[in-house]
Design goal:
binds adenosine monophosphate; globular; D-amino Acid Aminotransferase, Chain A, domain 1; four-stranded parallel β-sheet; 3 domains; nine-stranded antiparallel β-sheet; Rossmann fold; alpha+beta; about 375 residues; Dna Ligase, domain 1; 17 strands
């Protein structure tokens, strides 16, 4: 029973976006104090937290203050500088650790980790020069995708290569640093699975979610994913294996490609709760945020049950005004608003979770609102 961070202790969150906000809701529900480090005044997490240090994530003094005032630290996104965090490890416990960050903020390390763990990934090569790109693409073939190894998200920092004519244009991406060339996976579905592990090695997985993207931004998640029982079981096995080999503490999101033949390839890891797991707030016995708080505070982990199938749909800046009206017209839909001051096109402003016993009918109902039409 050692190492338990009990209610009334303080959880410090690095990053004040919607993930931090939903972690803070779970933490407050359980009686914790919450502090947040984020440069934006009145950011989504600060609206829920007890206190806010308004400073950059890599501001060493501010991070030292967060550490000083907290009993445990967590991060809500992967682009935190691991070295900055390492400097406060003598002050406060950071159960997620920095190894997880180092792996997930670097696509090359992430792929190497997955490959070494025996998890199938698309064939890839490290690319540093245009010549190397021209050489590797001969082996990997077309289509393929060149990605920067650092800092990319939601499809940013990526170029698809369809033929040799695309090589020199794609090579411009190398100006941003080392890249990785990946074989294009002809997937039928993109799915994800969230997994939680604590320091005692207990592991608990969430149901598999089927994800629909538009312009590389998650639009909808459908749970349970419409895949075979075999794929569901395999995804769970992969999640448990990754959590175990990483000595994960907290929640990790795993994005997977599934082919028509039922083959699974791991695409990306997120060392934190993930957008495609938001459905768990209403649809599961414990949400991904509840499980994250339990894990970083050192508590036993329950098995997570799906209480009802669900569809989650994201509210981007361009959807916000109309989506908020659904509070009135669709009273059984759970409309979340992250409290962001400025709505921009493509910016995640909130999400809606709809519990349903008829996924197809619910998907149709979403279409009929005409809010998410491209
Ligand atoms: P990522 O930032 O790696 O998650 O990529 C963004 C999106 O691009 C993914 O959700 C896929 O839809 C697509 N994508 C990325 N890499 C591949 C790949 N190797 N094969 C097929 N689609 C990909």
């Amino acid at each position: 029973m050692s190492n338990i961070i009990k209610p009334k202790s303080t959880i410090g969150i690095i990053g004040g976006g919607q993930l931090g906000r939903m972690m803070a809701f779970s933490a407050k529900e359980r009686g914790y104090n919450v502090g947040v480090l984020d440069p934006t005044p009145n950011c989504p997490t600060a609206q829920v937290a007890d206190w806010h240090i308004e400073a950059a994530y890599d501001d060493a003094e501010a991070l030292a203050e967060l550490a000083e005032r907290s009993d445990v630290l967590t991060y809500e996104f992967e682009n935190v500088d691991a070295e900055t965090i390492e400097r406060v490890l003598n002050q406060v416990s950071v159960p997620q650790g920095t190894e997880l960050l180092l792996i997930t903020q670097n696509r090359l390390k992430e792929k190497e980790f997955l490959k070494n763990a025996g998890i199938p990934v698309a064939t890839y090569a490290k690319i540093e020069t245009e010549e190397a790109l021209a050489e590797s693409v001969k082996e990997i073939g077309y289509p393929s995708v060149l990605k920067t190894i650092r800092g990319g998200y939601d499809g940013k920092g990526q170029v698809v290569l369809k033929s040799a004519a695309d090589v020199s244009k794609a090579a411009e991406l190398l100006e941003n640093g080392i890249c990785i060339l990946e074989q294009w996976v002809a997937f039928e579905k993109e799915v994800s699975i969230m997994v939680t592990r604590n320091e005692r090695g207990q592991i608990s997985t969430f149901p598999v979610s089927e994800n629909i993207h538009e312009q590389n931004i998650l639009l909808k998640s459908i749970v349970p994913a419409r895949v075979s029982q075999k794929v569901t079981e395999e995804a769970k096995k992969i999640a448990e294996q990754i959590a175990d080999q990483m000595n994960l503490v907290g929640v990790l999101g795993i994005e997977l490609f599934v082919t028509a033949q039922g083959e699974i390839y791991a695409n990306e890891l997120a060392p934190r709760p993930h957008n495609s797991g938001h459905y768990s707030i209403e649809a599961c016995s414990d949400s991904q945020f509840d499980m994250h708080i339990r894990a970083i505070c050192g508590y036993n982990l329950p098995q997570v049950d799906l209480l009802r199938p669900a569809v989650m749909v994201n509210i981007l800046g361009e959807h916000l005004e109309q989506a908020l009206e659904l509070n009135e017209t669709k009273p059984v839909w759970h409309v979340h608003d992250y409290g962001k001051a400025v709505a921009k096109v493509g910016r995640k402003m909130g999400h809606i979770t709809i519990l349903t016993d008829d996924l197809e009918r619910t998907l149709k109902e979403i279409d009929q609102t005409a809010i998410w039409q491209s």
